[in-house]
Amino acid sequence: xxxxxxxxxxxxxxxxxxxxxxxxxxxxxxxxxxxxxxxxxxxxxxxxxxxxxxxxxxxxxxxxxxxxxxxxxxxxxxxxxxxxxxxxxxxxxxxxxxxxxxxxxxxxxxxxxxxxxxxxxxxxxxxxxxxxxxxxxxxxxxxxxxxxxxxxxxxxxxxxxxxxxxxxxxxxxxxxxxxxxxxxxxxxxxxxxxxxxxxxxxxxxxxxxxxxxxxxxxxxxxxxxxxxxxxxxxxxxxxxxxxxxxxxxxxxxxxxxxxxxxxxxxxxxxxxxxxxxxxxxxxxxxxxxxxxxxxxxxxxxxxxxxxxxxxx
Length: 312
What we know:
Elements: E1 6-7, E2 14-21, E3 26-33, E4 44-49, H1 52-68, E5 76-81, H2 87-90, H3 94-97, H4 105-111, H5 119-137, E6 140-150, H6 152-163, E7 170-174, H7 180-183, H8 185-195, E8 201-208, H9 213-226, H10 231-244, H11 249-262, E9 268-275, H12 284-295, E10 299-300, E11 310-311
Parallel strand pairs: 4-5, 4-6, 6-7, 7-8, 8-9
Antiparallel strand pairs: 1-2, 2-3, 3-5, 10-11
Helix pairs in contact: 1-12, 6-8, 9-10
Family: Belongs to the esterase D family.
Keywords: Hydrolase
Pfam family, one: Esterase
């Protein structure tokens, strides 16, 4: 079941529609940001962003500003979210859909996840239902698609990159929850390297420098003090992590990227950036901006050049 598109008030050239997925067995809400004044005879890059209820408006605004500045081409932005009256209600199913493997005790404590992993079904929805539908409805280039995901969505993106990398050409992965299942992502990376000689993709992975043990614990204590609704759950998370170890995403991100670089995959272009003074909740907008400029080639990191760096 696919409903007609509905214009979005206040967001120019944007609309949304709902689609019922046979793979995830639920209804998803799809937000579409069109390039203003687009040519229906042309073909445009397409950017798919997870957690669309929270990320779509911000990413669309960033993408359009970068387009005006000549730092990326006009593009379609597709936000993948869910119906709901509140943000929390609309994001409730993400813990199932983005999980690449069944949650363990640490994952359940952190996310409140209770369902089995739905990542495989969600990827099938993307590849077999959503992408073909978008390509029929809108003038997008199926050979120029980007996946953006943050936190648990970033974990899903890492999993897709290391298991089905051809699903997208570009990946922007923010603060990926690669602490999942005691850093299970190392197994995905090794399995891919054992069976492949190339990983053709352009990949940007970012995180906030404050995504470390001391800062995360301090933030959790602050939340437990000020948020009565979440206090009990957060206190349990603090107790668990004090005993078993806190996730160190700011450390894991560059380690993953360095490992992939050392594989010397000829088709892989990859960069990581740890943003100073940014936390898990504050860094996504910065990752979107830097990530878009990187995967579309308008910004070149100093580490990739021998003479100068900056705008290409």
